[in-house]
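Bug #77: duplicate submission created two jobs. Keeping one. Sequence:
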Amino acid sequence: MKFAIIAAGEGSRLAQEGVSDPKPLVRLHGEPIVERLMRIFHQNGAEEIVIIVNQIHPSTQDFVRLLKDRHPDWHITLEVQTTPSSMHSFAVLSPHLKDAPFCLTTVDTIFREDDFTAYIQAFRQSLQAGYDGCMAVTDFVDDEKPLYVGTDNSMNINGFYDDFQPHLKYISGGIYSLTPRALCTLEQCMLEGKSRMRNFQRALIADGLRLKAYCFPKILDVDHASDIAKAEDFLSCR
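Kept job's structure:
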């Protein structure tokens, strides 16, 4: 199984709020969030970790290369490219993901390590049951523009929605575990000029892929300076 990280955003809101480090290098309890992700991925059996960073922040590129040298057993593959959207970044990573199931997330997705391990185990079990993917969801809403996820009573995903509806309990957690079959849907989305990950997720349903939802108690994003302390508090609590 492979793991992939989208870390090509500009992090403009953090910079405007006085955070000097690029988002991937923001530290939680002293550990850069990109290193934290890679460490967790390695601990969960990553055969390869592929990451895309932008050309705007050379310090991020340098740090990832340092991690490659320091941890050769993490099997890091680095792509450096500035892209217009997360889905374009995903497309850059996709050639590395064609030969094995994979887990993809953005660099600022913050979760507890034991929750993530349980999620990866659930994904592996879903593959044995014939599913094409397992998406992280949560009923904790702390997002400016959440993507609501529709499920049936067995946690099979049947839709993705921009607006809240009374029957919707979960939002997307921004962690996508998929089989290479999903890359055909990604390719078609790119051909059609779609540019948001939520449109890719809708297209997966339209293409008939079977997706399972796995609920995390809580997932946070680091979009604002205030989110750093919030994330540290979250990771400290048990």
